[in-house]
Amino acid sequence: MEIWSTNSSDDYDWSPLSCCHSLWKLRLLVRKLKKLPKLEEFPPNLRKLVMVMYQLEEDPFPTLEMLPYLETLTLSHPLSGYEGHFMTKYYFSAMGFGRLQYLRLHEVDFLEELEVEKGALPCLVLLHISSCWNLRMLPEGLRFITSLKKLENYIHLFCSIGTTKQQAWV
Q1: Do you know which SUPFAM superfamilies this protein is assigned to (predicted)?
Q2: Domain containing 29 — which CATH number?
């Protein structure tokens, strides 16, 4: 199922999704959404989620990491001229994403830091990061994810050396 909205309001009624027990794949493309749906408003058997959110102001992971069957997550958050408040750090807690195997972060323009707690993402096989232009470094906590087989990292890092900046593709 795909939900596409350019509605100028961020007041959505997500509750009908919670009744979709056979819905396992969802793509959300929402122009203005400041908060995610509550955990109980997501389809209960969701396994694959793609989210393109233009004005999301809160860290989505405290909610998303509690989805019990989620195996694939793609998150894109292009700013597209947005000048509001946004999260610069994503935090993956030790108890979250128990079944997640594939995580893709694409165009999360504002993201500067990822923190991965020991015990987080225990089933992660693929981490794909692309066009996250402000991300300063990969999280040290990745070393604790023993299931990680592939890291696709397309980040343009700016490294400061003295008073000059050098660009490096990692």
Answers
A1: L domain-like (SSF52058)
A2: 3.80.10
